[in-house]
Amino acid sequence: MRNSFFGSIVDLLAVFVFFSIGLAQPAQRSGAAKAKAAAPADPHDLSGVWHQPMGRRDPTMSNERPPLTPWGQTKFDATKPGYGPRAIPPALGNDPLGNCDPPGIPRLIFLEDFPNDVEIVQMPGRVMQFFERGHFWRDIWTDGRELPKDPEPRWLGYSVGKWDGDTFVVNSLGFDERSWLDRMGNVHSDEMRFQERYRRVNHDTLELSMTINDPKTYTKPWVSITKTLGLAPKPEGLDEIFCVPSEEQLFNRTIRDPAGGVIHK
Fold it and tell me: I need a surface site. Which of 20, 65, 73, 192 has the fewest CB within 10 A?
């Protein structure tokens, strides 16, 4: 019994020492980690896994939305979002994500309800973006090609990119108009043109600004606030986060719809 008691004391001391060392190490490393985060980086290297830090996730383009055209107003009035000032119970809404439809661009870029890191991979002739949510991937062509004149509509559009000094500029068109711009139900047409401007500020910081130009829907361009992405420590890459239609339908029937007053017989 005595040996057991002293063994327990030794174990407790070992645990105390272990945690004391563990707590001291982050403090010792914090200065070096901060210096590395703020260190200069090759502005033409966007490689890595990037995320919007908690507390700074923004579900919209932000800045005041431009006035809608009559066509845009009619389309906007038909959306029934589950969030924002026009929110109704999701069971009564028509958000495309409720059916596991692809979020589209730019909504996929700043989905805030789930982890949605994006991995950027640069290779000759193109840049690829891999999104954690749904494991979508997106090609951004950098081989000097022009945007097609009349592409077949796609959920993520057709994109080409080039460098403007230290800023990577992506221009896209050919979007499927069934997607929403954000969870508030803001809309676009298949004539939308979308521009992103990425700038690597330092080792751990990537800035992104976006502009929507869609004269069929808005009376003037919609320019976003500048969004800040941080380098994510994910040595094993992105997590597996899918929207599985069978699971989504089961959730809707058993939880979402009854909560909204919709009963399935």
Answer: 20
